[in-house]
Amino acid sequence: MNKTAVTIGKFEGLHLGHQLLLKEVSDVAEAKGYEAAFLKIRMPGQSIMTEEEERQFIQNEFPTIKHIVYYEFSPEFAAITAEDFIKDILIKKLNTAYLAVGNDFRFGSKRSGDVKLLESFGLENNYEVKVFDKLQIDGETVSSTRIKKCLEAGDMEYAAKLLGHSFKLSGVVRGGKKLGRTLGYPTINLGLDVSKLLPGYGVYSSDVILDGNKFRGITNIGIRPSIDDGEKPTVETFIYNFNDDIYGESVDIIPTRFIRPERRFDSLDDLTNQIELDILDADRNQ
């Protein structure tokens, strides 16, 4: 591999703080003739963005970055010493000439590696290290933890402010029970990547992106307690003024505003009446 400008981290959500690092390695790579690389340490559990969403985002926003490398945070990976991480991954594998990291970046067995160690090895191995302070918005650090709390509370607007992009749910439309059609509100059911973190259960105003076209709708995220009270969450969206058969097609659902929590209704008539109120609420506040 040619010389690279690299950034490393967990990069959960590719938020505005992460984007500063991505822009840095993109700019340096272009200016110095390096190749730009993104190394993500993939942690267990559900994520704000799926791997495919991350790749698409980087391709669209930072096209200079051609090398995307993932490392699973496995016991084997966790056992790598900080020194071996630098020598085997940064130097041998990535041929790093420029490295951009956050000021709290730790790596290697027992988190023993830090910025000072990176800089020390950089002097010996001819790579430069640029250290970034944490980005602050409204007096607090932009972090994946902060964004996850926003999503859990249904605060999609503030989550998008910290992310620098909309949170979205992507998947293929699959068949459902078709109860919504019976109620007069046909919905699409989204097949979900199990690694994807869901916002707090409830009803949301939403944008629906299909074949590059945007539609308005309302989305229920949760276990549908009035219908089957299942344990597996679903994402169902009623798209306004839309009756096409789109089973098997890929769709992006962007929940834009929380309307109400998910709740159980005594009858399907009560559920239908509430759906009408939800649509009015969404229209009134769009």
How would you state the average pLDDT, rounded? 91
Q: How far apart are the termini?
A: 49 Å
Q: How many helices in DSSP terms?
A: 9
**How many domains in all?**
2
H and E order: EHEHEHHEHEEEHHEHEEEEEH
Outline the biggest β-sheet.
6 strands, antiparallel, barrel
User: Which structural class best describes the helix and strand composition?
Assistant: alpha/beta
Task: Note the beta-strand portion.
Answer: 25-35%
Helix content range: 25-40%
The CATH homologous superfamily of the largest domain corresponds to HUPs
Tell me the overall shape: elongated
CATH architectural group of the largest domain: 3-Layer(aba) Sandwich
- The CATH topology of the largest domain comes to Rossmann fold
Number of strands: 13
Which segments are poorly predicted (pLDDT under 50) over 5 or more consecutive residues?
none
Tell me which oligomeric state these chains represent: single chain
CA-based gyration radius: 22 Å
